[in-house]
Amino acid sequence: MLMGRIKTLNLEGMQMKKLFVLVMCVVLVVTFFSCSKEEKNTSTYEIAMITTSQSSSIDDGAYNQSTWEGLREYAEENGLTYKYYEPREDSTDARLEQIDQAIQSGASVIACCGQEFEPVIYTAQEKYGDKTFLLIDGYPTDDKGNQKTGTNAIGVKFAENELGYLAGYAAVEDGYRTLGFIGDGAAASMKNYGYGFIQGCNDAAEDIGVTVDVNYSYKKDGDTAAKIQKKAETWYEEGTEVIFACGNEVFDSVKAEADIAGAKVIGCGYDRNATSKNVLTSTVKECGIAVQAELAAFYNGVFTGGKNLVLGIAEDAVGLALKTSRFEAFEQESYDALCQSLKSGELKIASSEDAQKVSGLIQKKQLNFVYVTMN
C-alpha cells in the first residue's frame, strides 16, 4: 500500500516536471517570436526627425512638437515607420551625428525645424545625396551666409508679414490705440513681422476711422533680457497698451513686464497664450502642416527638391491662435474675412524685400493712419 502511494507520488512529480518544462518551452518560443517581431518592426525607421536638442525636443510645446506631431500623424496614417533623434548637445556637430544615426537606422527622409538646422542641412544634403531632407522654418545656409538648397532637400519658411498683419489688425479692431513692436534683431524675418504689424494696425485704423501710435524697436547685439524688460516697462508706463514681442528671449522679457504692469503682450511663432493671462493672442507657424505637405510630396513621387518655399495663409500654414486668444471685440467673422482677402490675393502685405526701413515702408504703402516712433 505504501509502495503504491510512493509510485503515485513519483508519477505525479514526473508529470509536474514535464508540465513545467512544456510551459517553459512555450514561454521561450513566444518570447523568441515576440522579440523577433519587435526587432523586425523597430530595427529600421524610414522617416526621421532630428530635434533641436534634448532640452528642446518633441514636447517643447513649440516648433519641435508641432513638426513631430505632423510627422507622426502622417506616418501612422500611411503605415510608415518613424523615429525622433535628440542631439546630445546644442551644436551643429551633435545634430549631424544624429543624422548619421538616423540614416544608419534606415531613414530615407529626414525632417528638422528651425534656423539652428540651416548649417546642418547645408552639410548633410551634400554628404547624403541619396537621402531627402525637409528643413522647416529655415533654408540650408552655411556659417558664412551662403545659401544652397540641394536637389534632395527643400527649405520652408513662413509668411511672417502676414502673421504680423493679422496681429496688428486684430489688436486695433479689439480697441487698442497705442501699440508696440520689439523684434529679436533686424533680420528679414523680424522686419517681416514688424512691417506686417504696422500695415495691419494702419488698415484696421483706416477701417474704423481712427489713428493709432506704434512704438517700434529691434533688439540689438548685447541687449540683455533686463534691458528689454526695462524698455517694455518704459513703454507701458508711457501708455503703450500691448506689445508684439517677437523672439523667445524678447517675448519672455516683455511678458514678465506685462505681468507686472497688467498690460498685454502678443506672442509669436506658436501658441503662448497659456504662459500668462496677459497674452492677448499669438501668431502661429503651422510646422506640422508644412512637414506633412512635404512628406506627402515625397511619398507620392512629386517631391521637387532644390527649392525654398514661403507658406502663408493660402496654404493654411500661418494664423492667429484664435481659440485661446483674449480678444473682447475682434471676432471670428473678422478674422475669416481677413484670411479670405489674403488667400484671394486681394490683400497683399509688403515685406522686408519691399523696403529697407520702416520709413520707406510707410511712404511706399502710404500708411496714413499709423504713427510710428522708432526707439
From TrEMBL:
Localization, per the record, is: Cell membrane
User: ABC transporter substrate-binding protein PnrA-like domain: from which residue to which, for each copy?
Assistant: 54-333
Task: Please report the record's description of how this protein sits within the membrane.
Answer: Lipid-anchor
Q: Name one GO cellular component term.
A: plasma membrane
The stretch of residues making up the signal peptide is none
Keywords for the protein's UniProt record, in alphabetical order: Cell membrane, Lipoprotein, Membrane, Signal
What family does the entry list?
Answer: Belongs to the BMP lipoprotein family.
Q: What is this protein called?
A: BMP family ABC transporter substrate-binding protein
Please name the source species: Emergencia timonensis
Q: Output the lineage of the source organism.
A: Bacteria, Bacillati, Bacillota, Clostridia, Peptostreptococcales
